[in-house]
């Protein structure tokens, strides 16, 4: 007879013991082994696992002896309950039922009496759910009885005489190796699990950090700041990869993510399909992939087959073997490219300036929260062929705009001198700091700092939202300075008029004050 793992039977375990059980189980231990290590009841551990919905890897099947089987039948003759005997002996319940069936012992339920009682209750006006609950059957059986459906081996018989046979081959093919393919938290090769695929994807170490910070009570934003990820990434990670009711488990989450990586689907944009014809037609009209993807929902609201994501269209255009939209269609893209522009990993980029940069993360708090005037965001808007440009400055607290005249070019020296001349006209209270992107035009930032006594902070690569006010203002300025035009023809007086025009517009973000009014109020208050 098998020896059951020792534990405190029917004990009221503490929450920390339950948490420690799940922590060890998450690292790949078996339920019985973890229960033995912690001195817990095996039954309690299995119950916790089932309640939490945790999926554990399969272990090697247990081999039963002839004596085990004889002991099972001896106790079964005394109790008549297969489940009770299996639990008492610590045997697998499914194996015990198989032995009973092979021995010709009937272990099922005679549902004829239950069905008759169910039909009487329904005739008396009892709802289906209440009748099923009183009789003790599941919702699916009650639904079948209500419809007059009779279950037969391998199929069903409907009241109109139709016989529906289950597709046995397809069913068996789907359940042959379920844990290798679809089960949440399925076993995954360890080397694959721990491999850092790409910096875009969360690693196992990051998931462990998320678990620790989440257990400490940190918010999504706080966790995101600690990991250098956006709060939405953390929120999405916890929502998608929390497969249990006990909360987020890092190893289980990483197994789920790893098992989700290989996704083999039929190609959306097949050579002959209505969807492909629609996409090709709109690309020829110079629609962007994003416009096409969203317009499909409006044009075909009830046809789920007419759906394709923005990225799938890009893949079909740029990636060989992913649909291969025609080369002449690719040239109709707004940028006119037939190949995708590669993007380097930010972590592998080398500094583009000789003089060291000061990161935006070191910017003082009074600049970050817009509490004190004098902190500016800056950038360039560029004209036709990238030959001409205008410098744009936006004060963070008031959204006050100042434009920098760059007469001939936008080299580092020209931009530096133009910024110095513009900033020199500001009062000292408005010369605190300047935040810029990592454009080469700002490589003379040290000379600017020495001349103006203003600190310069640089945004992270590819992070325009860190200068959100400036980016928004650049969009407004394109009303006056359209793309593809020569910006060098505009005089300093014209730039001044445009800046005054923007500074006298009421802004929703300023509670409908104008930037000029808000800046004046801030200066008077200080």
From TrEMBL:
Cite a GO CC annotation: cytosol
Q: Report keywords, A-Z.
A: DNA recombination, DNA-binding, Transposition
**What is an example of a GO molecular function annotated in this UniProt entry?**
DNA binding
SUPFAM superfamilies assigned to the protein according to its UniProt record, in alphabetical order:
Ribonuclease H-like
Q: What GO terms describe the biological role, i.e. biological process, of this protein?
A: DNA integration; DNA transposition
All copies of the Integrase catalytic domain together span 360-523
The record's similarity note reads: Belongs to the transposase IS30 family.
Physiological role: Required for the transposition of the insertion element.
Protein name, as recorded = Integrase catalytic domain-containing protein
């Amino acid at each position: 007879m098998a020896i059951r793992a020792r534990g405190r039977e029917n004990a009221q375990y503490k929450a920390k013991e339950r948490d420690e059980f799940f922590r060890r189980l998450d690292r790949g231990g078996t339920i019985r082994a973890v229960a033995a290590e912690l001195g817990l009841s095996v039954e309690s551990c299995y119950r916790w696992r089932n309640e939490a919905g945790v999926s554990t890897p399969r272990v090697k099947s247990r081999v039963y002896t002839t004596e085990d089987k004889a002991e099972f039948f001896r106790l079964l003759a005394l109790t008549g309950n297969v489940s009770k005997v299996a639990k008492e002996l610590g045997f697998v319940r499914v194996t015990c039922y198989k032995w009973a069936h092979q021995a010709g012992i009937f272990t099922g339920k005679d549902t004829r009496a239950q069905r008759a009682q169910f039909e009487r209750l329904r005739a008396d006006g009892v709802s289906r759910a209440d009748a099923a609950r009183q009789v003790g059957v599941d919702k699916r059986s009650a639904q079948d009885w209500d419809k007059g459906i009779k279950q037969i081996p391998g199929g069903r018989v409907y009241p109109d005489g139709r016989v529906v046979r289950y597709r046995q081959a397809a069913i068996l093919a789907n359940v042959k190796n379920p844990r290798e393919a679809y089960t949440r938290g399925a076993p995954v090769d360890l080397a694959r699990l721990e491999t850092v695929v790409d910096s875009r994807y969360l690693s196992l170490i990051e998931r462990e950090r998320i678990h620790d910070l989440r257990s400490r009570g940190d918010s999504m934003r706080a966790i995101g700041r600690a990991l250098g990820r956006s709060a939405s990434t953390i929120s999405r990670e916890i929502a998608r990869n929390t497969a249990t009711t006990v909360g987020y488990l890092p190893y289980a989450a990483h197994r789920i993510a790893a098992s989700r990586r290989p996704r083999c689907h039929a190609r959306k944009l097949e050579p002959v399909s209505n969807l492909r014809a629609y996409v090709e037609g709109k690309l020829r009209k110079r629609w962007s992939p994003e416009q096409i993807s969203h317009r499909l929902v409006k044009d075909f609201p009830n046809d789920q087959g007419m759906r394709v994501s923005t990225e799938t269209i890009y893949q079909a255009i740029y990636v060989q073997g992913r649909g291969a939209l025609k080369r002449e269609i690719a040239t109709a893209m707004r940028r006119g490219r037939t190949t995708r522009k590669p993007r380097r990993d930010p972590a592998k980029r080398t500094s583009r300036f000789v003089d060291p940069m000061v990161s935006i993360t070191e910017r003082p708090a009074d600049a970050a929260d817009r509490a004190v005037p004098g902190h500016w965001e800056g950038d360039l808007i560029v004209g036709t062929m990238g030959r001409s440009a205008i410098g744009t400055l936006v004060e963070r607290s008031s959204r006050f705009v100042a434009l920098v005249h760059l007469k001939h070019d936008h080299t580092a020296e020209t931009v530096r001198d133009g910024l110095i001349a513009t900033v020199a006209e500001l009062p000292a209270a408005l010369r605190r700091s300047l935040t810029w992107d990592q454009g080469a035009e700002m490589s003379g930032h040290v000379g600017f700092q020495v001349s103006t006594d203003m600190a310069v902070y640089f945004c992270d690569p590819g992070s325009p939202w860190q200068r959100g006010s400036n980016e928004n203002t650049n969009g407004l300025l394109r009303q006056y300075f359209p793309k593809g035009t020569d910006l060098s023809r505009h005089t300093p007086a014209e730039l001044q008029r445009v800046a005054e025009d923007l500074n006298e517009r009421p802004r929703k973000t300023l509670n409908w004050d104008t930037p000029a009014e808000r800046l004046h109020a801030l200066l008077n208050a200080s």
